[in-house]
Amino acid sequence: MKVVVSAGGTGGHIYPALAILEKLKKEVGNLEVLYIGTKNRMESEIIPKRGIEYVGLDIYGFSKNIFRDIKNVYLISSSYHKCLKLLKEFKPDIVLGFGGYVTYPVLKAAKKLNIKTFLHEQNSVVGKTNKLLSKDIDLVAVSFLSTMSKFPKAKKVIYSGNPCGGHALTTKPIKKSDIGLDNKKKLVIVVAGSLGSSTVN
Length: 201
Fold this sequence. Notes:
The protein is of the alpha/beta class. About 40% of the residues lie in helices and about 15% in strands. Strand 5, helix 5 and strand 6 form a beta-alpha-beta unit. It is globular.
């Protein structure tokens, strides 16, 4: 089985994609994976280190800078044509998208080539790229039941929850003292995802 995966920008997109790949590797005997991301975001470092074939696109999100945005329209177009070439060569059975602006040219190219597509929305607030793509996707999955109604033009939407890696289920508990904290004092843990965590910190 051949699979193309696209997710970028933040860990909130990347790690659910990796969790799905982890599960597929266990379920499918012969799995070939091509990951398409950006050239300069988190995935460009994380994915190659895991031994997954990686292609980076020269693309970025829209901003309030009109000159940058005009350039990005050209980059989206060139990325789309690059993805057409990549998909024709790789011949995937399915293309999986997990959000981030980089998924747009990838899934658009898959649609053009009549390749089966899957899109996952991890957040309660739907990403702009996912919302824009949803009408062309074969199957959309969401992490929250409340998000299902946010894809009115989608062919099919299912509630899947948010995929997590197997290590999250097998991590052993530790004592507070193991990380230099007082076992007798109450502990409050604040968790913020990906780019949001730097703001909280």
